[in-house]
Amino acid sequence: MSQKSGARFTEKQGYYLAFIHTYAHMFGRPPAEADIQRHFRVSPPSVHQMIVTLERNGFIRRQPGVPRSIEILVPPESLPILEWLGIKTSKSL
Fold first, then answer.
1. Residue 72 and which of 8, 26, 29, 89 are 20 to 30 A apart at CA?
2. Judging by DSSP bridges, how do beta strands 71-72 and 60-61 pair with one another?
3. Residue 35: inside a domain, yes or no?
4. Does residue 67 lie in a domain region?
5. What processes in GO biological process is this protein linked to (predicted)?
6. Tally of domains within the chain
7. Does some domain include residue 57?
8. C-beta atoms surrounding 92 within 10 Å
C-alpha cells in the first residue's frame, strides 16, 4: 500500500473513505465528486478539499484529468464500513 506509514485518518475522513469504497464496490466504479456531495450534503468545494486532503495524506490516489479515478490505498478492514452501515462484525458484507 502507498499509505504513509503510521498515518491515521480522522473519523470524518474515514466516513468519506468508507463511502468511496462502498460506492465503488456497489456500482463497479468510484463515485464522482457530485455523488459524494449529494451523499454528505456538503458544498462542491468541501468535497474537493476533502479529496485533495485524502490524496495528500496518501489514503487515495487519482489520475489527473480522469473522472471517477479515485483509488483507495488503505486496507478495507481499516475503514469504518461495518459500523457506518450498522452491520454487526459477525455478519459478512
1. 89
2. antiparallel
3. yes
4. yes
5. proteolysis
6. 1
7. yes
8. 6
